[in-house]
Structures are given as C-alpha cells and as structure tokens.
Amino acid sequence: MKRILIIVLVAAGISLPFIISAASGGDTLQPSFPLSLKSYEDTHLTSLMDILAHRIRVEPLNLVVSLLFLGAILHTFMAAKFRKIAHRLKVNHEKKLENQVKSNRYSGDVVEEVSFSSEVFHFLGEIEVVFGIWVLPVFFVVSYTYGLDTTIAYINSVNFTEPMFVVVIMTLAATRPIIRLAEISLLKVADIFKGSPAALWFSVLTLGPIMGSFITEPGAMTISALILAKQFYARKPSPKFAYATIGLLFVNISVGGTLTHFAAPPVLMVAAKWNWGIGFMFTNFGYKAIIGILIANVLYFLYFKKEFDDLEDLETSKKSKLLIQWDMREDRVPAWVTLVHILGMIWTVYFAHYPAIFIGGFLIFLGFAQSTAHHQNRTNLKPALLVGFFLAGLVIHGGLQKWWIAPILSALPELPLMIGATVLTAFNDNAAITYLSSLVPSFSDSMKYAVVAGAVTGGGLTVIANAPNPAGQSILQKFFDHGVSPLKLLLGALIPTVIMGLMFLLL
Fold first, then answer.
1. CB 398 within 8 A of CB 155
2. What does the pLDDT read at residue 99?
3. Separation between Cα atoms, residue 244 and residue 250, nearest integer Å
4. For residues 166 and 244, what is the distance between their CA atoms, to the nearest angstrom?
5. H or E segment to which residue 24 belongs
6. Do residues 163 and 385 touch, judged by C-beta distance below 8 A?
7. Minimal CA–CA distance to 209: which of 326, 330, 296, 148?
8. Residue 106 in 3-state DSSP?
9. What is the pLDDT of residues 174-228, one digit of tens each?
C-alpha cells in the first residue's frame, strides 16, 4: 500500500509539469497568483508589520498558502511520530493475524493481509513525500479562489530544473564505480593516519564536502552518505554520535560547495546576477568554509574520540541487514568503466541548467550501466525520485512565500540579515532565500555577502534547509530508530552551524 501510494505521488509529481504544459497548449500562461512584489505598491510603508498586514489585506490567499506551508513544515517534524504509530499498528495487526488461516491466494502464492491504517501512517511518515502531499491543498485552494487556469499557470511557471538535476546526479553519484573510486581514495588518505575508523570518518567529513564544490553538493552528499553508511553507521555508533555525525555532514556539505560559483544551489541562484566567479567565491567564502569544516571536525573528533574504540568491527558490520550485500563486494571495477561514469557526471554538471541535455545523457548512461551490469550495483531510482519529488514540492511552496520573506530580508541590517537568513533557511530551502534576496534592488555588496553567508551557514539545521539534505537523509535514515528526528538533527548541527557563522563573520 505504502509503495503504491509513493509511486503514484512521485509519478504524478514528475509528470505534472508536462501534463500542465500539454493542457495549456505549450503556451506560457501568466499566473494572476501569486502577485508580483511591485503590485503591492507598498514602498511608502516603513514598518515590517505594516507591510505584511497590507499584503494580507491586498491578497488574503497569501496567509492561507503560508499557513499550509507551515503545516508542511510541522508535518516534517511529526514524521518520526507517524512512523512510530505505524509500527505499533503493524504489530497489533500481526498479533490479530497469528491465529488466522491465510486463505487468500493468487497464482498459488499467499497474499499477506496488510494493515491499511499502518500503511497510511507509514506513508505520512515518509519525509520525502510531505511537501508533495501539502501541494494538494494548495492546488485546490488556489483553484477554488482563482480558477484552475491560474493554478496551472503558476505551477507551469515554477522551475523544476533543480529537482530533475538532483535525481540524475544523485543516481550517478550512487553508482558502484563512483562510490568505489571515492571510497578507495578516502581510504588511502585515511591510511596516512593508520587507516583507523576515526581517520576515515575525518576524511569523509572533510574531503567529501569540499569535493562538493566540483561535483556539486548533491553528488558529494550522496557519495559521503553512502561511504559513511558502509564504513561508519554499519558499525553501530551511539545515537548521540550518529546524530552528531549527520548534523556535521549536513552543515559541512552546505558550506563545502562555496569554493566555486556553480556547485551550491544558494550560490548558483545569485552568482550570475551578482557577477560572482570562482575567484570571488574562494576568496570570500571558500577558504573560510575549509577552516570552519576543519575546526568543527576536530572539535567533534576530540569530543567523541573514545567512542571510536567502541565501534563494531567492520567485518561484523558488513553482515548488517541494513546494508545491500551486493554493494559490499570488493572486486575491482575496470578503469574504463569508471572513466565513463566520471564523464557522465562531468556532462551532467556542465549542462546542469539544461534538463533536455542532462536527462538525455542520463538515459544513455542507463543503457551503458545495463551493458556493464556485472560491474555495477543495482540502479535504484526510488531514493533519487523521492528526493526529487521532495524538492519539487518544496519549490512549489517556496514560490508562494516571497510576499513575506522578501520584506523581512530587505528590512534587516547586515548582522541581523545574516542571522535572519540562517534562521529562515531552517524553514525554507536556502536557495529560495538567496533567490528572493536577489529581487531586492537596494542590496549593497556587504548585504549580498551577509545573506548568502547566512543561507549556507544554516543549510544543515533541518532536512529542508539545503537541497542535498533529503538525499543524505534518504540514505542514512534506516540507521536511526523510526528515522531521523528533526530535533536531534538540529542539536547535532547546532555547534558546527555556529562555527561556520563565526568564520564567515570574523574572517
């Protein structure tokens, strides 16, 4: 039941833009909602509260869609609770079936009776589908107020390039040749420090995020999370250490993509408009991010130093049911196969703004993967599709929040602006924060720096704060009881977030 619901929603989410385009005859309709920021004509208002109140009076639907967005955010925090309820319902259902004769058969096989209520709560507990679920009430309320054409026009105007790119790059980064190459490279670095679990942990959390500046943050997140799953989480660390590590990973990935101008989504949104190139990014953000990553990693390493000795033996951990044994084999991948995979990633990154090109390349890659299947692991599209669905729902919601986010950003001086961007990022994708800031005409260079610094600093506080986070959460959530707790993730990411903020503020 849960799988069917997920597949239906994901398929609907992916096909919706194409269905809408066909319904509109391929023409670009101009939505009458949401209103443009200029249409409010409130430049004469100076008080933030007056501006927000005025915009609600002009368009009451603003408040409705924002409350629905708040509902989606609260739902993400309730996901673990829903999964616990689902587990309890499943156990109760199985107890009821213990004394019953399984009589339902199909083609000679027994059809297991499932608990409908348990599967529904499992579905509601899947973080990746939350924003897609909450798009439905938005769809209906906007259609009821303005008509179906307006809703179609709005969704058709949303840019889904980033969700599609994340699906492709996440799938490529999770392939066995790429993972083996990254794993072997990081193991060699760890060997310099006697190859201990602590050395590998430190290497992954340092070099993995920095690598994100070149293969993009979603790619780096996928590779880092998969290696941590195999080499660290399978060793059964304590819950406190497990949450500290995923929090550190999310923060490091968020800032690790700032060495270049094309790898981090929040930077990509403004780099062209503000003329930020590689030189500017490294001298203003990159080296500060590297220093911050090293400081945070060292502090966490020293704090949890004794816990590394308590980790389960690697050979024992490889027997974990949470790991795919096919992926654990150590046989060599031919260099030419790995080279083709690397070229596929380069192609995808280079044409990241052109879905028709990178998706076409991806389809060719799938054919290559099939023809070299004996060197591959299983190409599992489900995690990547779910993450893409998550981001597609998030950008639909995010585009309706500019009525309140933009005036908040424009009303803040530099230091409060950086702190405000950090906080807002925790509740909305940081790329949306920087995009909205690019619409503010009065931003000085120092304010531009402050908002981007704040956005990347807060990118690890929640799953929705940074586009790659759902990818990491999707890979690692099975190692946590009832999934990743939003509150514990926040606590795990808090210290490195403060460190990164200080680096961007003081250096």
1. no
2. 64
3. 10
4. 25
5. none
6. no
7. 296
8. strand
9. 888 998 888 888 888 888 887 788 999 999 999 999 999 988 898 899 999 989 9
Helix runs in 125-264, H state only: 130-146, 148-157, 161-173, 176-191, 197-215, 217-231, 239-256
Which residues sit opposite 106 in a β-bridge? 109
Give me 382's structure tokens: 């489900």
Alpha carbons 1 and 3: distance in angstroms, whole number: 5
Contacts of 154 (CB under 8 A, 6+ apart): 31, 33, 34, 142, 399
d(CA 317, CA 325): 11
Q: Round to the nearest angstrom and report the end-to-end CA distance of the chain.
A: 53
C-alpha to C-alpha distances, 177 to 183, 332, 334, 476, nearest whole angstrom: 10, 9, 9, 20
* Sequence spans of domains, the chain: 2-19+48-96+110-157, 163-387+400-506
Instruction: Look at residue 38 in the predicted model and tell me its pLDDT.
Output: 87
Count of C-beta atoms within a 10 Å radius of residue 432:
24
pLDDT on residue 394: 82
Q: Residue with structure tokens 């929705």? A: 464
The burial of 359, by beta-carbon neighbours within 10 Å (0-12 exposed, 13-18 middle, 19 or more buried), is given as middle
Place of tokens 């790995």: 338
pLDDT of residue 265: 84
Which residue ranges in the chain fall short of pLDDT 50? 1-27, 105
Residue 21 corresponds to which amino acid? S
> What is the structure's pLDDT at 15?
44
Amino acid 318: pLDDT? 61
Of 434, 382, 442, the closest CA to residue 405 belongs to 434
Q: Give the Cα separation of 208 and 156 in Å (integer).
A: 35
User: What is the rounded CA–CA span in Å between residue 433 and residue 406?
Assistant: 8
Amino acid 100: pLDDT: 66
Phi, psi (degrees; rounded to nearest 5) at 409: -65, -40
How many CA atoms, within 13 angstroms, populate the side-chain half-sphere of residue 61?
Answer: 16
Inter-axis angle of helices 445-457 and 414-425, nearest 10 = 30
